Amino acid sequence: LICKTPELMNLDNWLAAVFADAQRAAPADANPALQAEQSGWVKGRNDCWKASDKSSCIADAYRHRIAELRARWQLVPPEQTVNFTCDQGVSAVATFFNSEPLPAARLEIDGETQVFVGTPGTGETRYDGSFGRLLRVEGKVAKLIWDQGKPALACVAKKKP
Fold this sequence. Notes:
Layout: H1 6-25, H2 31-46, H3 54-72, E1 80-86, E2 91-97, E3 104-109, E4 112-118, E5 125-128, E6 134-138, E7 141-145, E8 153-157
Antiparallel strand pairs: 1-2, 1-8, 2-3, 3-4, 4-5, 5-6, 6-7, 7-8
Helix pairs in contact: 1-3, 2-3
């Protein structure tokens, strides 16, 4: 299906280029994990055979992965970086990327980095991460679900000095 559909073939070529850029940007010791993550992504993309609209499922998988890699490895310039103070004394740094094919945010919290990809068509600034994580931004306020099963954190952007 990918080879027979020009849009999917273009997305496949784009992802190949972005993945090569990510491998160059990643530290050498991160490349085995990056390769394993990519293999896992391929398995997930291949599950689109179960979808009613296989082409849309595959295209969405490509767009999401491209945005995720571009943000995680900072392959495009960020739009802005915001420092947040959240409930329970938690500090977070969010770097936002407003790039093609989807907007993304790279969030650093407690020494861990998570990439959130924008959800198109929701009418809000919503970013979905792995394992049920969610970042919703409205102006200078953010709602963050970091740990499933725990209440969402309310975060406020710190004023610039």
